[in-house]
């Protein structure tokens, strides 16, 4: 799979070139433009427990990231203040918010989990992810809920808000944790159903680019990235930006502990951004030479 | 797999007999005793959106159920009032609370999702479930978080509360939704790791009993039960109590819409309880005849 991914045309294109694909869902187009202009393929994983910590982290790393990945359900005081704060920082510093909910239920339950309850994810996160295990109906169920949320949001000029108010989905196609049970057949099904739902599925959480057919232009985000490879005691395994972007042709590195545990988070984010961007430039350059 | 399940000794034992197994995790033992004494293998799925509706439903069906299954994240005003109310009704009417969270992340994230945030699930739900896709480390991660929560709860006499303050896990071993990607190999892995972690894993969410080895005594809960078979437009598929308990040797039927959408929920719960219990009695009786 790796060598196929390396040969796919998307690995030799710039983010800017890829953003011009007219088949992209609007949010994917927006994100590729953002990465291109801001020159960062870094996503930071905000594994913090208070609104204050979350907003402070967003301030610290906001200039260096394209996406902030959240787990709203581990923020003890999550509420309106969290949402307003996140919206404000993300607009000012220009990054997207990705709630790493890993939806994995049947259609009717999914729709409620996406739109209701204390988290009401659809209202503030433009990207969410879902596993495909419950079956392909998860995609139209979430797409439909997103469509209705967008319509409900855009009902009056006063509430119209700054564009883009888009929503898109990443399928959880692979994981990096030890002994995980994601089979190649499962990953293949994710790719298949992503192609069937290009108007809502923007890409994958995966270890490598899954683009194979000529017009595949999915965005791959890869978690578990650190500057040095290794693991933790609970099955997490780490890869470097060079390996993930350079060799495995992923598009966005997701970094958690490597930045959160750093004494100077701003500096660490700056360093990861640099490494991720260098790996990307080098990959595109070397792929073009080969042609 | 079905015929094996039917031949397994657990399908010919009463819930009372099965509760005497000294290898059971305390909560499994408690639940089997509860089912035996209350004569109900019915779990109601509380897919409602307000604390008021949730507590009203618990009042209505509480006398007829052994477990109330919740989705806390779809309750718009979920908070301390919800938890206090649920605890009060569940103690008075004697049923366990099962938060259908379907955990599916890496160990460190899982622990936070289980114990922190607006939902703080470990504090009020004695049963939760998890998928095994991220790898077997999910089980010790949750078990460890549960152990610490139990210790933290039992720190003073004032907070000791009525026993039992136990926690246990159901592995998401199979689903019923159309086109789901749960393979037999995955289900087998769930069984394998459940056996390795009997002190915390009480059983499975599955379509049928997975008990195979002589000393397997796992509790199976099966969702998607209605009095007549069928499906919805989003991939959900229904089975009857007779099929689930009688033929597939599951232990607990999970009923959602069949009771929630009924004009008289109390009456509907009474009817499902009766059907589930008859199917169980008939199964045990016929299995004993064959011996």
TrEMBL record, chains A, B:
Homology family: Belongs to the OMP decarboxylase family.
Pfam families: OMPdecase
InterPro entries per record: Aldolase_TIM, OMPdecase, OMPdecase_AS, OMPdeCOase_dom, RibuloseP-bd_barrel
NCBIfam families given in the database record: pyrF
Catalytic activity, EC: 4.1.1.23
Positions that bind substrate: 47, 69, 176, 236, 256-257
Ranges for region Disordered: 1-21
Key word Nucleotide-binding present: no
The entry's keywords: Decarboxylase, Lyase, Pyrimidine biosynthesis
Active site (UniProt): 100, 102, 105
Annotated source species: Baudoinia panamericana (strain UAMH 10762) (Angels' share fungus)
Protein name per the record: Orotidine 5'-phosphate decarboxylase
Pathway: Pyrimidine metabolism; UMP biosynthesis via de novo pathway; UMP from orotate: step 2/2
Gene Ontology BP terms: 'de novo' pyrimidine nucleobase biosynthetic process; 'de novo' UMP biosynthetic process
Recorded superkingdom: Eukaryota
């Amino acid at each position: 799979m790796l060598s196929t991914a390396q040969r796919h045309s998307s690995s030799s294109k710039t983010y800017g070139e890829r953003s011009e694909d007219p088949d992209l869902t609007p949010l994917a187009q927006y994100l590729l433009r953002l990465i291109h202009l801001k020159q960062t393929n870094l996503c930071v994983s905000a594994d913090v427990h208070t609104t204050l910590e979350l907003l402070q982290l967003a301030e610290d790393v906001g200039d260096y990231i394209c996406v902030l990945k959240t787990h709203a359900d581990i923020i003890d005081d999550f509420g309106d203040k969290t949402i307003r704060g996140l919206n404000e920082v993300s607009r000012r510093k220009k990054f997207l918010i990705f709630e790493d909910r890993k939806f994995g239920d049947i259609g009717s339950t999914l729709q409620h989990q996406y739109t209701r309850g204390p988290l009401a994810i659809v209202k503030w996160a433009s990207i969410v992810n879902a596993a495909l295990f419950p079956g392909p109906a998860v995609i139209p169920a979430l797409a439909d809920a997103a469509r209705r949320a967008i319509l409900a949001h855009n009902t009056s000029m006063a509430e119209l808000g700054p564009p883009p108010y888009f929503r898109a989905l990443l399928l959880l196609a692979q994981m990096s944790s030890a002994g995980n049970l994601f089979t190649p057949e499962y990953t293949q099904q994710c790719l298949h159903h992503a192609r069937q739902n290009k108007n809502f599925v923007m890409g994958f959480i995966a270890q490598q680019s899954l683009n194979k057919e000529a017009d595949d232009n999915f965005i791959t985000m890869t978690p578990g990235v650190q500057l040095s490879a290794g693991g933790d005691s609970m099955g997490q395994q780490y890869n470097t930006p060079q390996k993930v972007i350079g060799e495995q042709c992923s598009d966005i590195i997701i970094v958690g502990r490597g930045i959160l545990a750093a004494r100077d988070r701003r500096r660490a984010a700056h360093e990861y951004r640099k490494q991720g961007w260098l790996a990307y430039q080098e990959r595109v350059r070397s792929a073009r030479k080969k042609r």
